[in-house]
Amino acid sequence: MDDMPETHYARSGEYHIAYQVIGKGPFDLVFIPGFVSSVEGGWEYPQLAHFYRRLASFARVILFDKRGTGMSDPVPARQFPTLEQRMDDVRAVMDAAGSRQAALIGVSEGGPLSLLFAASHPARTSAIVLIGAFARIAWAPDHPFGAPLERLRFRSRPAPLPGRPGFQSIRIARWFPPPWGAAHRRQQSLEQTGPSPGRGASS
Q1: What is the pLDDT of residues 97-144, one digit of tens each?
Q2: Number of domains observed in the structure of the chain
Q3: Backbone dihedral region of 37: left (phi > 0), alpha (psi from -120 to 50 degrees) or beta?
Q4: pTM (predicted TM-score)
Q5: Residue 150 lies in a domain
Q6: Is the link from the previous residue into 5 a cis peptide, with omega within 30 of 0?
Q7: With contact defined as beta carbons under 8 Å apart, do 90 and 81 qualify?
Q8: For residue 186, what are the CA distances in angstroms to 29, 44, 98, 179, 190?
Q9: What's the CA gap between 83 and 19, in Å, rounded?
Q10: All residues at 6 or more sequence positions from 2 whose CB lies less than 8 Å from its CB, including other chains
Q11: Would you say residue 1 lies in a domain?
């Protein structure tokens, strides 16, 4: 895509965190993605690219891939990063982008991360927007409307994708069954440039 912003890397501990900056608005906005993200692959998704451009029409937007996803450094499949480690990825990206304070948009699992960052760095957080966020997904005694753990494990197992021999989808084949259309194929492509199968199965 010709108008895709340049990808840079920030250092968070031993990990390199991929990020992009788009727009020249009067305030900074950090977009904290959910399970699947790719700062470059996302621009191939027309709806997502449109959303990014709309945000950039009124803000300076900072996009990034959390460690273990997209173009950021991978993590061991069985050593899932903590929220505190992921929070430091946000701090590192803001520092690298020259952002002293920003509004945060947290999507899905990016919601709890946004809240933790705001609680830990209130002076660097101007606002929070949550989209499809949750405290937890799995059932617990104090969370009775959560999904049973066995169901989540089943849905997170890699599954073959029709028409793509050898590629294992983390969720799309189970969460979004056929018939398949253009939206499914774009989601499939985003999964390929997002987390690895091992990373996805552990999330």
Answers
A1: 999 999 999 998 899 999 999 999 999 999 999 999 988 888 889 988
A2: 1
A3: beta
A4: 0.78
A5: yes
A6: no
A7: no
A8: 25, 8, 32, 14, 6
A9: 18
A10: none
A11: no
